[in-house]
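Sequence in, structure out. Go.
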Amino acid sequence: QRGRRGIMLLGIFLSILAPACLVLLQLIEKMSPNYYYICNASTGLVNWIAIALSALSDVMPKQWRAPSFGLLLAGFSLGFAFSPLLALVFSHLGVSIFSLSLLVGGFLFAAFFLPETLPPAIAQEAIRARSVDPEDETALGCLARHVLRPLKELSILNRNRLFRLLSVLAFFSGMSSSADQSLLIYYLEERLGFIDADIAILFLVLGLTGIFVQGVVLKPLNDRIGEKHVVVTAFIFGALHNCFYGLATTKSVIFIGVAIGSFTGMSFPTISAIKSNNVKEHEQGRIQGALYSLSSLASALGPASLRFVYHLTKDNDYPGPGTMFLFAALLYLSASFCACALPKDKADSRSFGDDTTKESEPILQNHVGGERSGNGDFGLQDSHYGSASAMES
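Output:
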């Protein structure tokens, strides 16, 4: 209700703190690593990606939201593709300094060129929706309202059947994807003898295929089959690539699985678009934040669940410890069945008609260069910060 720009800048600033501490840790021998852990944890206070999705929803028509969200993720894929190559050029300290400089540059770019995307009328509507008459509220009621507000904001996930299904999808897919990200490298180093060069190739394959999927495949596929079937397709690919991980006995099979897994990345921008298309304009930030909170819970439970399966099966015969990835594949299959139950009229932007004219000219207020030009366009410059954040990762 106070705009996107300020809170996004805060989120980007918080993402700078951990890399800054990493540089200091290498320069100051006696510095405690606890500072790094605290700064890294602070990024969870404000997730700038959720704000970025809300900002894109402010300015993009419904049928373009999934592809535009995908382009945001393509920036991360670009960073994943080329970040391992930095280790071939720089020392550990050099990589840390270069990463920090990218993030600082991204913050400065956003500070000077990022426009405010939330129209004032929508901001006022959000304020009215949350307003409480102070004359009718006691001090205890005010305290209770602030304490319970997070739960109230999350209650949007239980608004209707569509949101409940989307919540289940986000939870199951979040468990699997977070476990893959956290455990795959350790598994490959221990079981298949991956070395630094193999990991660099893995990230290169992951990044390049991610750019291709998000930037080239997602938009025409979405236009062809609609968001619902894109999500189902993405989860099927998710189950397939986890089967490759769990059953692999050679490095080449892993590389094939990573390439297939890039198609799973279509699920995140598409689910975000479905959410965005089914709430009011003043609820864009609320729904993105609520789903991110649920995904964060899934990200905590996913690796723990797969590690539990790993400890139960690590001494068994083939596939042995790879069974944990087969369990992840089962989660993706469960999510794909839930995705089949999504109502087509609410999970397919093609059924909404062409709203480009209505939504292509939102009221933007930018501190730098945001005035409307004579031909009806806004003097905006795109902020592409994803690759910098991915480099930091």
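Check: DSSP finds 15 helices and no strands in the chain. Confidence is low (pLDDT under 50) at residues 356-393.
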